[in-house]
Every structure is written in C-alpha cells, then in structure tokens.
C-alpha cells in the first residue's frame, strides 16, 4: 500500500512538473512552428518518425505542410500531381499530429508562385485563362534577371472563375487535414496588376493584393478557419532597404493597412535578422519570426522575439506569437540531410537541419533558464 501511494505521488509530481514546464514554454513562445513541403508517399513513414521522435520532443506545436497539388483531390482531380498523397496517407499525418498535440496547417500557394523556373504548375497549366501574364512565355532555360521580369507566374485575382477552383481545393484540403487554419503563401508576388491584363490593368496593386487577402480570409471565416500568410509583400523594400525578395518593390506594401487584422503573418528574413515583427505588431497583426538556414540568425531572432514579448505593452505582447523554422527543399532532401544520409560540405553549418536543431536548442535553453 505504501508503495502504491509513493508511486502515485511520483506520477502526480511528474505530471505536475510536466504541466508547469508546458505552461512556461507556452507563455514564453505560444507558437513553436515547423514549415516544410508535404512528404511524398514514399517518404511518409520517415516523416511520421520525424514527427514522433524529433518534432514532439522539441515541443513543436504547429506544423505547416506545403501541400499545393501533392494530394489526390476529388473536387478537381485534374489538378493532382502525378505522385500525390491519398486521403488515407494524410490521415496518418493528422493522427500523428493529434497524438503529439501539434496543430496541423496545410498550405497551397495562392496568387503567386504558380510557376517555378521553366515549369508552369498545375493551376495555370490546366487553366491557362487564369494567368495574369499570358503574354509572358515560359522559357526553355530560365535565367534571372530576364527581360520579362519573370520570377514566378501569378493567377489573376479578378478572373471571374479562379476562386471557384482554388477555394474548392482549399476547402477540401482543410477538411481532410481537419485544420482550423490555412496558409495561403502569397510571398514574392512580382506579377500583379499587369498593364496587359484586361481586368487588373491600371488598378492599385496594394488594393489588388489586399483584396485577394481579404477574399481568402473571408472565405475561410465562413468555416471558422484562420488565414496565415507570408509577410514580405506587406513591407516596403525600397524605403527599408530590405530589397525586392524579402519586401515589395511594386507597391503592394500599402496593403498592410487594408487587410483584416486577424491574419497571422509569417515574417521571414534569411540574409539578415531584421526586426520587422515590431512593424507588423504595431499594425495590429499577429506575427511569427521565421528563420531558414543560418543558425546564428535563428538564435538572435528567438532572443528578439522573447524580448519583444517581455517588454511590450499587453496588447502588443499577444501579437508576438513565436518562432517557426522554414525548410525550402522537399521533405525527402531535408530528411536525408537531417539523418545524415546526404551532406553538403560547402554549406558547412548553414543548413536547414542545423538551423532547426539550433533554434529548438535555444528554445529549450530559454525554457530551462530560471
């Protein structure tokens, strides 16, 4: 009987300690995220292992999977990739995340990133009428810079048929992932309000961008889902000196004052740890800071985020939501790198897997520091 009481007390103490630790880390950094391309079917088992054995022990509580057309859509099967996740396979991801208390958020790139290099992605391949710049032809060999200013294609946000298609995909992917939020991408939009577009020509690019953000946000709100997006197009690249990649050179930045305030901004800076999270918070938007492949930046950005939360006024504090590691390879190459199957010696310490480890080591250090 004494042994049973002792064992019970031990269990209660362990449980209480765990709850206190969880409460502390949630108070310090409410969101501790990881963003990566959704795995292909052949990578699924390894990725599930990664969720259970790497994300969960590090107390990652949000996983964004860039799905795009890597799913066997029923609403628009013509938009499936040739190799795509089935509903059964997605449910394995859902189950693993639910078991580990991880919020699972799917992403489909909306507006921009409808092509890459010389490849047009599914939406504009199947529905070329949605193309914002049909006069810009995809090159056989892509180079940057180029006379057309082509980085990635965009769909036309004012085309009367585009939202019926993309929102069907959004609804289906949110349903199968059992998601209460959706990430719409919307980064690096270079083509918007093109002079040759019969619908967008002459319109204010900030208003066009804000209109598309609002359209997506309002659609999601019908089912009590929240919109997440990248923040670069809401920053003025010229005035700040941030440049055309991490901020806007085509005047979309003024959209920051036109979009709903319940949008979650994922603020990425990969070449310098710029502190633009403050700007988003001052505009009334919740924000995450997102590193990629430079571990030293991940540490300084985490310390910045904690300082913002510690020193801000109560309304501002709640807008500084935390940190999210981003990965810009496919899931397979990242897992090979993480598990040491393939190593790029030229990258040295500047890899996504090393940045991930360093970021969450720093979060662990902060959590355990009195």
Tell me the CATH superfamily.
Glycosidases
Mean pLDDT: 94
Instruction: Please indicate the percent range of residues in DSSP E strands (runs of 2 or more).
Output: 5-15%
Strand order across the biggest sheet? 1-2-3-6-7-8-9-10
Instruction: Provide the succession of SSEs.
Output: HEHEHEEEHHEHEHEHEHHEHH
- Number of helical elements: 12
Care to describe what's here?
The chain has 370 residues and is of the alpha/beta class. It has one domain (30-368): Glycosidases (TIM Barrel, Alpha-Beta Barrel), CATH 3.20.20. The chain has twelve helices and ten strands. It has helices spanning 2-28, 44-55, 87-99, 122-126, 162-176, 205-221, 237-240, 277-282, 295-311, 314-317, 331-338, 352-368, and strands spanning 31-37, 62-66, 103-110, 115-116, 119-120, 181-185, 226-230, 264-268, 286-290, 320-326. It has an eight-stranded parallel barrel, surrounded by five helices. It has a two-stranded antiparallel sheet with strand order 4-5. Strand 7, helix 7 (237-240) and strand 8 (264-268) form a beta-alpha-beta unit. Helix 2 (44-55) runs parallel beside helix 3 (87-99) and helix 9 packs parallel to helix 12. The protein is globular, with a radius of gyration of 21 Å. The chain starts with a helix and ends with a helix.
In short:
With 370 residues, the protein is an alpha/beta fold.
Please give a handful of descriptors for the protein shown.
eight-stranded parallel beta barrel, about 15% strand, single chain, two-stranded antiparallel ribbon, beta-N-acetylhexosaminidase activity, alpha/beta, TIM Barrel
């Amino acid at each position: 009987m004494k042994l049973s009481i002792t064992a019970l007390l031990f269990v209660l103490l362990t449980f209480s300690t765990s709850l206190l630790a969880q409460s502390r880390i949630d108070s310090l950094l409410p969101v501790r995220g990881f963003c990566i391309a959704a795995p292909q079917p052949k990578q699924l088992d390894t990725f599930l292992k990664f969720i259970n054995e790497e994300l969960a022990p590090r107390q990652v509580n949000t996983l964004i999977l860039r799905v795009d057309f890597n799913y066997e859509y029923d609403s628009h099967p013509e938009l499936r990739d040739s190799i795509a996740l089935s509903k059964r396979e997605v449910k394995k991801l859902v189950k693993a995340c639910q078991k580990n208390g991880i919020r699972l958020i799917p992403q489909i790139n909306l507006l921009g990133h409808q092509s890459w290099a010389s490849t047009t992605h599914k939406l504009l391949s199947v529905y070329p009428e949605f193309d914002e710049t049909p006069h810009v032809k995809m090159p056989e060999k892509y180079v940057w810079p180029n006379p057309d200013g082509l980085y990635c294609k965009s769909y036309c946000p004012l085309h009367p048929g585009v939202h019926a298609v993309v929102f069907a995909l959004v609804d289906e992917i949110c349903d199968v992932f059992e998601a209460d939020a959706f990430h719409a991408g919307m980064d690096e939009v270079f083509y918007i309000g093109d002079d040759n577009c019969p619908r967008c020509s002459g319109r204010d690019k900030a208003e066009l961008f804000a209109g598309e953000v609002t359209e997506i946000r309002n659609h999601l709100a019908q089912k009590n889902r929240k919109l997440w997006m990248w923040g670069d197009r809401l920053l003025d690249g010229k005035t700040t000196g941030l440049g055309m990649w991490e901020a806007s050179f085509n005047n979309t930045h003024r959209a920051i004052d036109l979009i709903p305030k319940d949008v979650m901004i994922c603020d990425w800076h990969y070449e310098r740890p710029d502190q633009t999270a403050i700007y988003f918070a001052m505009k009334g938007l919740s924000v995450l800071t997102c590193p990629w492949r430079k571990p030293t930046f991940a540490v300084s950005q985490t310390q910045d985020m904690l300082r913002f939360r510690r020193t801000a006024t109560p309304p501002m504090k709640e807008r500084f939501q935390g940190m999210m590691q981003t990965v810009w390879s496919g899931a397979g190459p990242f897992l090979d790198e993480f598990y040491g199957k393939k190593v790029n010696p030229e990258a040295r310490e500047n890899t996504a897997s090393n940045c991930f480890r360093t970021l969450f080591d720093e979060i662990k250090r902060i959590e355990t520091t009195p």
